[in-house]
Structures are given as C-alpha cells and as structure tokens.
Amino acid sequence: MAKIPPFDVEQWMDKYETIPGVLNVAETCCSSISVQDLTRFNTRQNAPAPLDLSTRLTYGAIRGSDELRRNIAALYEHGSSSLPFSPDSVIVTQGAISANHLVFYSQIGAGDHVICVFPTYQQLYSIPKTLGAEVTLWELKEENGWVPNVDALEGLVKANTKMIVINNPNNPTGAIIPTSILAQIVGVAQKHDIILFSDEVYRPLFHSISAGHAPPSVVSMDYKKTIVTSSMSKAWALAGIRVGWVASPDEGIIKDITVARDYTTISVSRIDDQIANYALSPEVRPGLIARNLELAKTNLELLDQFVKDHASVVSWVRPVAGTTAFMKFKIGDKLAEDEEFCKHLLDTTKVMLLPGSKCFGHGETFKVFVRIGYVSETAILKAGLRQLSRYVKKYSLK
Ligand SMILES: Cc1ncc(COP(=O)(O)O)c(C=O)c1O
C-alpha cells in the first residue's frame, strides 16, 4: 500500500479550530444541535424519547437498526428509478468518512483507474491512490461555475476505469451538478460499465435552488452501479453522533461493503443509532431540515451582502447548496495567496478560514482561493464578517 498522505483539511481544522477566541467560519456542519434541541422539532404527541436509557449496550443490529435503515432508505424514495431500493440497500457506518473508506476499500485495488472531481474532500482521491489505483483528477473550473464538463470526462475514461467519483453538492465550492449534467455523467458511466460513486453528505441542503430543480441522488437515476455515501453531520447538524451510511441499489456492491465492514466496524453505537433514527423519523425530519435550510439562507444573505459591500476586493461563485463557498480576496491589486492570507487573518483577527491550495490543491492549484463555512451560528458569522471587513479595509484597500 502506498504511504498515506496527511489529510490536509482535517489537520488544518484540528490545528486551529480550538484556539481560544477563534471565530470559526471554516466549519462545514450546519451549526450543531444537542439531543435536547432535537426534541423541539418533533411534531408527534407522546412520541418516544430520542434515547431509551434502558437499552442494553450490546453491539446491537450489525448493519444498523431496521428502523434507521428504513428512515435512511426513505430519503431516496422520490426518484423515478425502477430499481428496487429498500432498507437492505443501506448500511450504517461511523460517519460518511467511514462510508467513503469502505467504498474504496471494498471496490478499488491495484490496476484500477479512478476518476475523481477536483476540488473535493481529499479522502475521495487520496484513499483510492493509497490502495494502488491510478487516480485522474477531473478538474472543475471557476469560469464554468464549478460545474463539471462531461466532454472532458469522456476523454479521461480508460479501459481499466473502475469508478467515477463525484461530490454533489460540492465541498468546497457549494456548487451542484445539475440534473441534466448528472444524467450525462450517468450516461458515460453506463456506456463504459463504470461504478458511479457520489458523496452526497451535503444533500439535501439545497438552500438556493428553486423548488423542483434540486438534482436527484445518483441512486435514484435508474443505473444499478451507483453508490452514495452520506451522514448526519452536515445537513442534519448532528456530527457528534458519528452516524453515516452507504447506499446502493446493487446487491453485489452492498455485499462487498458488508464483508469489508466486518473488519473495520462490527456495528455503530446503539445510542447513536437511536438518535439518528429519531432525527430522520417522519415526525422530526421536516422540522430539522427546515431549521438548517433557514439558517443557511439567512447566513448566505449576510455573506452575499459582505461580498457586495467589498466587491472591489472579494469575489466568488455564489454557492447554491451545502455549507461552504470558495472565495478570492485581493491585497492591493493582487489576489491574496491562500495560506499566508489565512494565517495572517487568523493572527490579527482570530477569523478562521481554510486555504484552498493547502487543503484542496496540495500544491499550486487553487492558490488564490479560501474556503468559508458559513452555516455556523449566525452570531459567529456576523462577528467573523465584521472582523473580515475591518481586515479587508486595512490591508486590501490600503
Ligand atoms: C465531502 C465530505 N465527505 C465526507 C465528510 C466526512 O463527514 P462525516 O464523517 O462527519 O460524516 C466530509 C466532512 O467534511 C465532507 O466534506
């Protein structure tokens, strides 16, 4: 196995997010809630509590409880796919990070070729590489609104391409792959018999897309060799329970993942399973997602106003989904270099952003981009933007 490279985004977060007084606007989760907060969204009279304290702490259901897998499967029921999709198509994991790992660990090896969108969460291209696969990065372009170019994809496919990896909505850009483009990607995968794997951890946080225009999940698109991963962390504001999942209409893929998972997971905490099940239940889910969509919209308006107010020195492609945006700042008449900018900003104002090339480009690519995570508590975003505005006035407009 190749040497595992450092996971740059996680290391940056770990290094700076706990420094005293930090204004963390680099976070990717919708502002996290407690179990107590969760009960506020429940619309059912006399509903059972989110947690049954008498539960014996055995390993529990190995693949995740039936109820939880049923509630997860229900998230994918709205597509037009003719393929059967049931709780058996779902396996519960410890966060999307384990889900992603299991997908690669069970499907990819030496001799395989993997195509992965770029920029995205580093795990999605670094892990297949460490497993011995050849990885080609399918670069997204700012000038295309960060939407992938399918003609370019066709040119990247090789005889041994085993998997295409997408991330929809995308971290860090906050862009989506619209339905028509997604259908073309499915077409390419189908034509060459390639697995299409989509990390959909920011789904369904489509806060700036008109009703009916949100792209479907890839597992709802009538192509069997599709896999999705997701979790409770981002759109559901419950990262602390570490519940995620893999889902696929392909029984063979689910079987492979189950075999691999026996070696890494056994089961997910029964306590976490119960809380996730409560959050995704029909009585709680609508209120919870409404809270997060509302928070995202409110905060994005503030960020949008900030960009407009500083338009001579700040630019971006306005995000339409998820929790993050890729932005550019100018110092004088030059675009600011990401790492130097983020460190100086942190030192002088305590505002924490993420450097684009350090965490997503791992070299020169995305050198002039920084990622903001704007679905924090509104008060933190406001304080962060106030400081950022002062900083920009002092250094960028000097
Ligand atoms: C695209 C993407 N996938 C997966 C993860 C991992 O999320 P978790 O393990 O908390 O579910 C993240 C976290 O930032 C992410 O951005």
From TrEMBL:
What keywords appear on the UniProt entry? Answer: Pyridoxal phosphate
Molecular function (GO) terms for this protein are: catalytic activity; pyridoxal phosphate binding
Q: Give residue ranges for domain Aminotransferase class I/classII large.
A: 50-374
Entries under CDD domains matching the protein: AAT_like
In terms of InterPro entries, this protein maps to: Aminotransferase_I/II_large, NHTrfase_class1_PyrdxlP-BS, PyrdxlP-dep_Trfase, PyrdxlP-dep_Trfase_major, PyrdxlP-dep_Trfase_small
Instruction: Give the family from UniProt.
Output: Belongs to the class-I pyridoxal-phosphate-dependent aminotransferase family.
Query: Which PANTHER family is this protein grouped with?
Result: AMINOTRANSFERASE FUNCTION, HYPOTHETICAL (EUROFUNG)
Kindly provide the name given to this protein in its UniProt entry.
Answer: Aminotransferase class I/classII large domain-containing protein
